């Protein structure tokens, strides 16, 4: 276990990692829900193929940075 306090760069890097992970988990959960819904509809009537599912876009770098800023604001709130 390290006894050295993290510097600003380390904290920002951790916030970016956390933001990326959170947004990707949300994306995967949404994708799984859409696919489950699609498979449910497809299994109801094997003669009818439902329209192809659409997914929300994968998180962008800008979205990850925006989320990191929100987390940073929360951390800095007293």
Account of the protein in words:
Helices cover 68% and strands 0% of the residues. By secondary structure, it is mostly helical. Helix 1 (8-44) packs across helix 2 (61-76). The longest helix has 37 residues, at 8-44. It is rod-shaped and about 65 Å long. The mean pLDDT is 91.
Keywords:
0% strand, rod-shaped, single chain, mainly alpha, 78 residues, 2 helices
Number of strands: 0
**Secondary structure tally, helices:** 2
Give the structural class. mainly alpha
The amount of helix comes to 55-70%
Overall, the morphology is rod-shaped
**Biggest pleated sheet:** none
Radius of gyration: 19 Å
Distance between the termini: 27 Å
Mean pLDDT: 91
- Along the chain, the helix and strand elements come as HH
Residues in β-strands, percent: under 5%
Q: Extract low-pLDDT stretches.
A: none
Helix and strand topology:
Layout: H1 8-44, H2 61-76
Concise account of the structure shown:
Helices cover 68% and strands 0% of the residues.
